[in-house]
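How a chain folds remains the central question behind the approach discussed here. This step matters because it turns folding into a mapping between discrete strings. The sequence in question and its structure tokens are set out directly beneath this paragraph.
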Amino acid sequence: METTLPTHLIGLAVHPNSNKLPVVQRFNVYGQLQQPGVLVCGLAKIHHIGGVRAVAREIIPVNSRGNSLKANGESKLQNAKLEGPNGTTTMPKDLGTFPVFPGTESLCTAITVIAAALRVVDSQKKAEKEKQAEIQMQIGALRRGMIVEDGLVYRQTFVIRSYEVGLDRTASIETIANLFQETALNHVGMSDFVGDGMGTTHAMMRHRLIWVVTRMHVQVTRYPVWGDVVEIDSWVTSSGKNGMRRDFLVRDYSSGQILTRATSNWAMMNQDTRKLSKMPNDVRAEISPYFLDRSVLKEEPCQRISKINDFAPYIKAGLVPKLHDMDMNQHVNHVKYIGWVLESIPQSLLVAYELKTMTLEYRKECSPSDVVTSLMRPDPPFSPGIELATDLSSNVSSASPPCISDPCIISKGSLQYIHLLKLQSDGSEILRGKTEWRLKEHYLQM
């Protein structure tokens, strides 16, 4: 039989038929006891609610007699204590007034103490939620950038760390590419359509689709150095019927000087079949409102990259993906391909020259079990000043370590190379690339 308690406060009750730790029942706001039980002042060794445990001073048997409650025993509930993560609190004597029915004074006192305990619990839970919300807001401010230009451009700042630079204190091209990836994912993360994984949307998740990069072009004016703060702007637009283009503009945060311009093309792949897919209409409807018709490049990069045969002068074989090279899309991350391209370049050349422009065409994904070969040749093959590079090594794997004090300076002009990454198992291409190199500034004055 349902019995109404003589209070409008929230109370607690436990079943009397359990010889173990009883299960706590909670009244509704009108204090309705769903079935007869034992009313407990506090929750000693029974439950932790919101990180607060009440120390019981008295257990009061309760019997149901029609529409009334009779409490057996005498109340000894003064100075009940609440034990929580921030210490122990003694309940005040004045806990408020409420209607008292004849014969229920002890019961009403118990309900009052428990109600006060619950108010303390609710207050601590609210304070904890507010604290966590503030922490998450602070973390978000550190992790994320801002949306500018009517919500179409994402902007984020980064500090160049010591582990992101090389022997000359400048950031590597892989560092720049990683910052591009981080900026793109954070941009999607601040959008309303964000789903799960590497920048997927809700509609893409329904269709089992993921983004894969198909082409990237980077133009570097100046590399940032250790301790520099860079500001990266990024935006997206359409690329053909089924693709998307994402542009990046990197500035020096202090001076506003443009350091790097880059553009990338992306397509959708079915994560089950691992084949490229057309863009579904519901996906296009999600992302098209964020398109900005703007190009970061002043002129379009080269459209076609020549193929390299197996007789390239520079070859690095046996490149194997490591576990940390994989990303959340279950394949080798596209930034790792850049490192493999650099593997076939003689190190003595890398000491004196820095990458000026880079164009990459991604043709096939790479799995953890694949073994890759990196090939490189000058472009054009017999251009003046470049053919001397073939004297450095016929096979990069047998090249001597770089001589930092006496670098190999082939020409004070730019050097251009064609690159190829292929699988050793069947020779299938996974990437074609083209790079242009310039002599580092301090070597120009020698």
User: Anything to note?
Assistant: The chain is about 20% helix and 30% strand. Residues 347 and 357 are 18 Å apart (CA to CA).
